[in-house]
Amino acid sequence: MASLVASKEKMFITQTKLLNEVTWKTVMQIAKKHAKSAAQHLLRLSGAIGPERIYADWQWWILAALPFPHLVRVLDCFFHEGLKVFYRVALAILILFHKHSTNQNSEWYAEATKNGVDHAIDKFCRNMPASPTKLLRTAFSIRALSSQYISRVFIKTEMTLKSKQVITGNRLVRSRSSDNLPTSQSQVNIQMMSHTLTIREGSHSPGPRALSMGVYPIQAIKSQILDHSESPRSSHLALWFPFPNAVFSDQQQHSSDLRQKLFTLWSWLPVRITMYQPVLLYTTEEHGCSLTTFYVRVEHHEPTLLMIKTCNNEVFGAYCSTRWFERNQKDERGNRQAYFGTGETFLFSLYPERAKYPWVGCSAGDGKEDQRVAHGSELFMAADSKMITIGGGDGQAIWMDENIRYGKTDRCSTFNNPPLCPSGDFEIRVLEVYGFAGA
Questions:
Q1: What is the per-residue pLDDT across 105-119, written as a single tens digit (0 to 9) for each?
Q2: What is this entry's stated membrane topology (predicted)?
Q3: Longest dimension (CA), the chain
Q4: CATH of the domain at 140
């Protein structure tokens, strides 16, 4: 209870269909490396149903099947240390099941061959032969299973599944990232689904319905960065962000290109974030050009989306996974940490080129999941009273001065990106920072 009250971060178990699939595929992936014998044993016993069906129930092994004394101990560790505890316990269950079912004369081997390994594991958990202490000792004695590795497998799996769900169309410029762009037809399908849900929820169908981009209601926000006019102060285009139920201005000469840009950016966000309502936290147009003001308005929000428009009308930015307040955190020696953030951070460019640049660690493990990235490729975010930096190692992807007026961009090891504007140096016309209400 003390950990729950003191926690600065919410710890929720996965709540979407996609992320549920990501979690069990993550368990399957880490089991192949850190519980190899148990994973191979499970594969042999799974037979025609395949191991995927078995791993899909992994959360229920813990939450539904474990005896209450075991569950109490597991949840106690979960509240204190986070979701990695569940992954370790799931692997511990596989290891213990392997130990007790290897002998073909054992009751658990007989149960698996008679009723299926899925029923056998469920029954094994309900009649757990190991004490709570032994279960946790087995879980936490798995060597080299770091949170960083779990996070890297999780993010890579999410990106892979997400990219498979989106179809590339001819009308949109293709992204250089692994997340392909949706076709105009898929946007229409989403619009129709949103319309149907609105009627189902009891609302009256409007006259000519404005274009919808999702199925969850969202409030309107304005952006001056994505207006194509020469100056953000002239001919301001009021638009709605392409988050669920987003609606665009009637100025049709701009709306098509804006929809494409915004829908592209929307498709790049982590799926769980798309459930939350975007809120404009800071803009240089209203709040002035000062890092002090920036920190006051932004630093306690997580995640945030930064968008920059230069005086040459280039538009780029970054999705920042961690609070900017982390710049004040100190290590065990009392020194302020230089860099912070996680591999969910990514860069993007919207104009003149549309491209996403994810963390290099997301692809570093292709075919070699245990491959480590260099420390210089894990420099996500840095900030102090004089500057803000996103991306590091052999250069800085985005750097801005304390007056939020001048900046520079270069290739960096963290994202392996080209400079986000041709000249490398830029003058900031507008900076906007968005948070997500409830995230």
A1: 889 999 988 888 889
A2: Peripheral membrane protein
A3: 81
A4: 1.10.472.80
